[in-house]
């Protein structure tokens, strides 16, 4: 089942989310409007807002509240991407030039700040202190993850535990928050909220693990970013960590040097090492384990089309090519 089919249960909701995003991006500052239009046109999977909607609808919520929460989550995510691209000096995302490549670092950072603050305005609008608490905790954790990743960059001694902590903070926390917001909108108690939180946690980890595999296996035309991008930024992701652990001394030193220098010139040789040491199936197996835990977290919830789509999404993630 492809992603479009999986998300077809929330097609109408997602159209409302897109309309909300466009309306809330509006500003009297021309540059913000231009960068906002660029973000919208870039598209993307919109998984985080989709999780808000699927969780809420799976739990019987029929109100429009999840639409507001979903748009707000996407604003938070988009703002982190704007800031990430500046930190990583990225020039390409989703096959298009990044905002910083077009408008410069200052414009990208400040527009990211606008999206953050607009998202918090929307949280206040929801009228739920619990929503503010969840999102304040999530955004703080994301910032911690960004700093921890920065410390790991260029450090070939980063181990598996440090890597997993980064993706837990940087990626999984927003997945968790989105799923929990869906449960909150559905007026569910803490027990059910915790189940949805666990689903988002494990799905988020699996999603990032697969993303890090794709950095060495994907077709750049399909993925929208250059293969070996993480290596060029000196990021010691799990495929590299495993390859260093299992490779020969010479292989290990080649990868260590590339991480220290943020050098992808020997990408072909490093990809060959990654594949020869079993780093790809190792990382995929960990992603599969996380996906299974995500699905298990939904046990006991009503058997609805939206719950089935959440299960299908976890299966889809481990086999996606972009």
UniProtKB/TrEMBL annotation:
Its EC number is 2.5.1.90. Keywords: Magnesium, Metal-binding, Transferase. It is an enzyme of class 2 (transferase). It catalyses: 5 isopentenyl diphosphate + (2E,6E)-farnesyl diphosphate = all-trans-octaprenyl diphosphate + 5 diphosphate. Pfam families: polyprenyl_synt. The keyword Repressor does not apply. Belongs to the FPP/GGPP synthase family. This is Octaprenyl diphosphate synthase. It comes from Solimonas aquatica.
